[in-house]
Amino acid sequence: MALTHYPTSRKIEENLEKVNERNINTILLMEKASRYGILAHEVMAEATTESDIPKIIHRYMEEGVLAANDKTELEEQIARIWHHPLINKWLTGGYTIKNEAAIINDEGETLRPDKVFIGEQESIILDFKFTNDNYFKHEKQIKNYMKALQNLGYTNVRGYLFYAKMDDLVEVKL
Question: Which residue in 37, 102, 119, 145 has the fewest CB atoms around it within 10 Å?
Answer without folding.
Answer: 119
